[in-house]
Design brief:
The structure holds two protein chains of two kinds. Chain A has a seven-stranded parallel sheet. In chain A, strands 15-14-16-17-18 form a five-stranded parallel sheet. Chain A has a three-stranded antiparallel sheet with strand order 8-9-10, with helices on one face. The longest helix of chain A is centred in the N-terminal third of the chain and has 17 residues, at 27-43. In chain A, helix 3 (84-98) packs across helix 4 (109-122). By secondary structure, chain A is α/β, with parallel strands linked by helices. Chain A contains nine helices and 18 strands. Chain A has helices spanning 27-43, 60-65, 84-98, 109-122, 241-251, 259-263, 294-297, 317-320, 329-343, and strands at 13-18, 20-21, 24-25, 46-53, 70-75, 102-106, 126-130, 132-140, 143-155, 160-165, 172-176, 193-197, 209-215, 227-231, 254-257, 284-288, 305-310, 323-326. Chain B is built from eight helices and 13 strands. Chain B has a nine-stranded mixed sheet with strand order 9-8-7-10-6-1-4-5-11, sandwiched between helices. Chain B has a two-stranded antiparallel ribbon with strand order 2-3. The N and C termini of chain B lie far apart (63 Å). Chain B is of the alpha/beta class. In chain B, helix 3 crosses helix 4. Chain B has helices at residues 40-56, 71-80, 98-112, 132-140, 194-199, 209-215, 222-231, 280-292, and strands at 3-9, 11-13, 36-38, 58-65, 84-88, 117-121, 144-155, 158-165, 168-175, 178-182, 238-239, 259-265, 274-275. Classes of the chains: A alpha/beta, B alpha/beta. The interface between A and B is large, with 100 and 87 residues. Strand 10 of chain A pairs antiparallel with strand 12 of chain B, so a sheet runs across the interface.
């Protein structure tokens, strides 16, 4: 037997799906590369960036700078615009070939469309919207598993925090929202391996066609705002939401909203802060008529200062607020505007 | 031609609006204080299916997997215009994650014997995963159109759908059968019809017969009640794992690759905070403090 001692266990691969549109990588994909780097180092494994698209080869180096060891690059005209089936086909073919240990995707509309399709075909466990990822052990019915991926997420409407594991199935799949994981600085001297992949599609993979796309740049810059004024169900009606806009305008902030306000039709979804919306960390967050379900708090509780205005003195939001104002926002907001105008004169 | 529409719905605890009343003293949520409701997004899916039926003919079948009391959402669907409803319930289904759930739903859809369009809500408010729709589509081997907002055209076996995405809109087309997950901007779900609430008032699953007989003993025996409801199309069939030919190791907890390692109740540790009186003076001193601290 030659090189018997050379036998090596295959190094575990941590995959990150690189979401890109027109040559621009989604921020969440870079954040996931940072996280994958940390997980792979812990596992003594490798980070693989899964880069799909058309004429996207020049993005490969960037993913290496952000932490990838290997870039699996599938460049094909059929991949130019995201479609579930061809993307899932490429990912699944590679999955069967390389058997990754962990597979992370952004919890974006694309990630939330693609991840379950892949997980179902691979019969792999998938956890959506994780807010934390760690490596740890698990014991079940006397069986011990080491180095599993702890997938941590708010559950049951965000009122509990669940830690989920996939003991038996691989890859261990999770989606993560943008803004949740810390983005590490790129290292422009990092090197890695680029593996070009030739996709194979059958007719069924190409059954769906994109006829028209009308994409627009995001209407609000909530994520990077230093002041956020957010309204919830307690605002009462769409007309009253003007008060929220007015306060945000006066203070030079952006407008946010709870899911209840979005569901009630007061404001569009792109303003939603929370578990299925945007995560914000402003220096001041003013929560107006927001009761403070954990889903919402998950998206804003890292704000440096929180002011809560609510008529219900028992509203959960008051437990995380630095300043509690029990009162009617229709009266309180105009007082705030007047006070600020007076002080800034 | 008519289209065979299948709508997948879920009964969920109303987690959307947690008021102070649903919070316990220790800062955790009192689940028992939350009512069970029709998952909001699923109402948009049902409405879209009903509109397809109205414009093109066909029938709307509503499926739900859940405990026996989930029959409530099926009755609601009947009141809103569904043609038939089926409850998937079995102790073996308990503890299912999205993979086991989608397998179960797929088996049930196949048992129906044919489908052109499958509709789901975008996501359920208790889990917010948005995974079951795409996973059912994968298991059925059909294309999925997530974030569906409007069916732009439906001719023979070709459908064009507009998708509403946070950063824009996209129009896609494909051939049937396919699965749509429907967003809230798609339509305004019709309310339950008063007429149907009367005609379908007695709709029940066989699991509910004992209770029904207590209320209306004049129906006599369960057999007689079953015949009465069956003749009027008011029997809501109950299917278990064996009925839909589901492999036992792929449903419920046994078929679920995910395991919950632990649950931490979110306990809100009250922060050091200041009560600000809702008076002009109180608000003024708050704003002044923020300006002085360079926060404003």
């Amino acid at each position: 037997m030659r090189g018997g001692t050379q036998h090596m266990e295959k190094r575990k691969e941590v995959w990150v799906f690189i979401e890109q549109e027109e040559g621009c990588i989604a921020p969440v994909s870079l954040e996931l590369l940072s996280k994958a780097r940390e997980l792979a180092d812990r596992l003594n494994g490798r980070v693989c960036a899964l880069l799909l698209g058309h004429q996207v080869a020049d993005l490969a180096d960037l993913t290496i700078h952000y932490g990838a060891d290997v870039v699996l690059l599938a460049d094909h005209p059929e991949l130019a615009v995201y479609r579930t089936l061809p993307y899932a086909r490429v990912a699944l073919d590679l999955l069967r070939e390389r058997e990754p240990y962990i597979f992370l995707l952004g919890a974006t509309p694309i990630g939330r469309d693609l991840a379950p399709r892949i997980a179902s075909a691979a019969r792999a466990g998938l956890t959506a919207d994780c807010t934390g990822l760690q490596i740890g052990d698990f014991e079940n019915r006397g069986k011990r598993y080491t180095d599993l991926l702890y997938q941590i997420r708010p559950a049951f409407g965000g009122n509990v925090i669940a830690t989920i594991v996939n003991p038996e199935t691989r890859p261990q799949m999770a989606t993560v929202r943008e803004g949740v994981m810390r983005l590490d600085d790129p290292d422009n001297n990092r090197t890695g391996e680029i593996v070009r992949v030739e996709p194979h599609f059958d007719e069924a993979d190409l059954a769906l066609q994109v006829v028209k796309r009308e994409m627009r740049p995001p209407a609000c810059n909530l994520r990077n705002a230093s002041i956020v004024v957010a309204g919830g169900a307690g605002v009462g009606c769409k007309e009253n939401f003007q008060l929220i806009y007015e306060l945000a305008r006066v203070l030079g902030g952006e407008v946010g909203a709870s899911r209840a306000a979005v569901d009630a039709g007061f404001i569009s979804h792109e303003h939603q802060v929370g578990q299925t919306g945007v995560t914000v960390r402003p220096k001041l967050y003013i929560a107006c008529g927001i009761s403070g379900a954990v889903q919402h708090r998950a998206g804003m509780d890292q704000s440096a200062k929180i002011i809560a205005i609510n008529t219900d003195p028992d509203a959960p939001i008051f437990r995380i607020a630095h300043y509690r104002i029990v009162g009617d926002l229709r009266e309180v907001i105009p007082m705030m505007i007047r006070a600020y105008r007076e002080l800034s004169r | 031609m008519g289209y065979r529409c299948v709508v997948l719905v879920k009964q969920v605890p109303d987690t959307a609006n947690i008021s102070g009343q649903a919070m316990k003293e220790d800062g955790t949520v009192n689940r028992a204080a939350l009512p069970a409701i029709f998952n909001p997004d699923d109402l948009y899916a049902l409405e879209m299916a009903l509109q397809v039926k109205e414009q093109h003919g066909g029938e709307v079948t509503v499926l739900t997997m859940g405990p026996p009391r989930a029959a409530d959402v099926l009755r609601d669907a009947l009141y809103r215009g569904a043609d038939r409803c089926i409850l998937l319930t079995d102790r073996k289904f308990a503890g299912a994650d999205t993979l086991a759930t989608s397998y179960t739903l797929k088996c049930a859809i196949e048992r129906l014997g044919g489908h052109d369009l499958v509709f789901c809500g975008r996501q359920a408010i208790d889990g917010d995963t948005a995974q079951v729709g795409p996973q059912v589509a994968e298991k059925l081997g059909i294309p999925q159109i997530t974030y569906a907002e409007e069916i732009l055209s439906l001719h023979d076996h070709e459908i064009a759908v507009r998708r509403a995405l946070p950063n824009g809109r996209e129009t896609v087309k494909c051939t049937l059968p396919c699965l749509l997950t429907v967003v809230g901007s798609a339509n305004r779900p019709r309310p339950p019809s008063a007429r149907r609430m009367i005609t379908c008032k007695l709709a029940a699953t066989p699991l509910e017969y004992p209770e029904l007989l207590k209320k209306w003993p004049e129906f006599g025996t369960e057999e007689e009640l079953d015949r009465y409801l069956g003749e009027r199309g008011l029997r809501i069939p109950v299917w278990n794992a064996a009925d839909i030919g589901a492999a036992e190791d792929r449903v419920g907890l046994a078929g679920s690759p995910t395991r919950v390692l632990k649950i931490d109740y979110v306990v809100l540790e009250a922060r050091e905070s200041k009560e600000v009186p809702a008076t002009p003076e109180g608000i003024f001193s708050l704003i002044r403090e923020l300006v002085q601290d360079y926060i404003l």
